[in-house]
Amino acid sequence: MSSVSPGRRERLFDQIVRKQSFLCVGLDPDPEKLPEGISRDIEGVHEFLRAIIEAVSPYCVAFKPNFAFFESFGPEGGALLKSVIEAIPDDCLVIGDAKRGDIGNTAAAYARAVFDQYGCDAITVSPYMGVESLTPFMAYPDKWTIALALTSNPGSQDFQRLVLRDGGVLWEEVMKACMKASDPDHLMFVVGATHPHDFKRVREIAPDHFLLVPGFGAQKGSLDEVAQQGFNRCCGILANVSRGILYASDMTDYLEASTQVARTYQRQMADLLMAYELIP
Amino acid sequence: MSSVSPGRRERLFDQIVRKQSFLCVGLDPDPEKLPEGISRDIEGVHEFLRAIIEAVSPYCVAFKPNFAFFESFGPEGGALLKSVIEAIPDDCLVIGDAKRGDIGNTAAAYARAVFDQYGCDAITVSPYMGVESLTPFMAYPDKWTIALALTSNPGSQDFQRLVLRDGGVLWEEVMKACMKASDPDHLMFVVGATHPHDFKRVREIAPDHFLLVPGFGAQKGSLDEVAQQGFNRCCGILANVSRGILYASDMTDYLEASTQVARTYQRQMADLLMAYELIP
């Protein structure tokens, strides 16, 4: 249990209060989806993402670059990722969406890559290989480890919801085991907005942790339901929207369209934060 | 179920028979462990790995670059990885040890990265997000998808061995679910040599599949036990050794030392293949 940075949740909450937003914007750069007037190559992606980041950063508290889409450019994708991350303002958390997880010395190498080389503030990790595969990430006192618990996709039914002999469910066991190895100032969980009825149980297990919640927009999750069941005294929710913001328009007005969608989310979030008395 | 390449197992078995080896050499390039006389930087790693590949390739049928160690160099790691993979002879399978796994469109981007950009013949994948997160890899007719089942590390106890209400065990459910989505000419499983008593059960579930077996060398798995319980009519085992071969010596004689260790494994494997009448 590392605890050299007490109050990390509070500092994140301060940003949420200041921006009246708990929005995370996912950066999934797919050349096929780039709007009109942007070249469908790595330079186009670079131009597009830097413009999007500048336009929407007033309305969000985090960006989540999805490593897969950068890696799909091959060796040049690393420099693109680094440059895009450098363009993210300091008042936004950088969540490396990498879903890593491997034995100790390999996990330590992934941590060096994502935290030290690319400068991410947080990483998503996949728990199949056990808590041991996550502790090298958790060991960073000034970083966040975000463990997959109950993901937003239909495939979350396959294994995460398997019922155990003792009555538990796999995703609950994953949360409990991770919580023994870290604390709410260093550990978050991924819980999909597509499972609104599970947020009550999530909060019984982990009342204090931040949750990274994908599944809005294309996947139809409800912000109201997530706020009702998921808010805690530090907000405790980072709601991710990727395609719904990035590809709000495929025309030359794309920046206005993306900004408009981000602002709409921010206003809805401000209303919810007020409704639950998290901001005045 | 893709089945446009029948006989892929047999073609891999042909290589095993020809080389009298089922050895996979893991490429985990850690600058701190480089031998004397090699510079502890990305150029040193490049020189070291290309020399190792040339020296040990007569004794193995596969190489397994561990993506974490390449990524830990940051943006330059991609070019290193590509160059190292290009140095692997055509008669060796290239297994991208990346442990990827994410929702469909993201998994498809990882597949483009590992298969199309880096030219790997196979990828290791982590199943926590469900079968849906693996099918984009399985859809490549000329590639292998290698799903984590029962990994070699102590953390494999945490979740993989959880007993389910219906009497099954998580790692067995993972294997069964993956087998419904692919076939033994496209799907392998990771099963650690540190679990010799489970190979019988593995072969009950998946008699025909190849298994990628880590956990020899540093982790003390026994080749004899794995062969006894795990061999099938196409051998069905790729036994991985990483550090035991790469870092056989930290002196200037490192190439001789690595070659010697690889050759010793190969001879032990030839004896086992003969003992079980897989080669004349």
Q: What is the count of helical runs of chain A?
A: 11
Strand content of chain A: 15-25%
Measured distance between first and last alpha carbons of chain A: 34 Å
Main beta sheet of chain A: 8 strands, parallel, barrel
- E-strand count of chain A: 8
Question: How would you describe what is shown here?
Answer:
The structure is a homodimer of 280-residue chains. With 280 residues, chain A is an alpha/beta fold. The first copy, chain A, has one domain (8-275): TIM Barrel (Alpha-Beta Barrel), CATH 3.20.20.70. Chain A contains 11 helices and 8 strands. Chain A has helices at residues 8-19, 42-56, 67-71, 77-86, 104-117, 135-138, 170-181, 199-205, 223-230, 243-246, 254-275, and strands at 23-27, 62-65, 93-100, 122-125, 144-150, 187-191, 210-213, 237-241. The first copy, chain A, has an 8-stranded parallel barrel with strand order 1-2-3-4-5-6-7-8, surrounded by 6 helices. In chain A, helix 2 (42-56) runs parallel beside helix 4 and helix 2 (42-56) packs parallel to helix 11 (254-275). The longest helix of chain A is centred in the last third of the chain and has 22 residues, at 254-275. Chain A is globular, with a radius of gyration of 18 Å. Mean pLDDT of chain A is 96; it is low at 1-5.
Q: Descriptors for this entry?
A:
homodimer, 280 residues, disordered N terminus, 8 strands, eight-stranded parallel beta barrel, globular, TIM Barrel
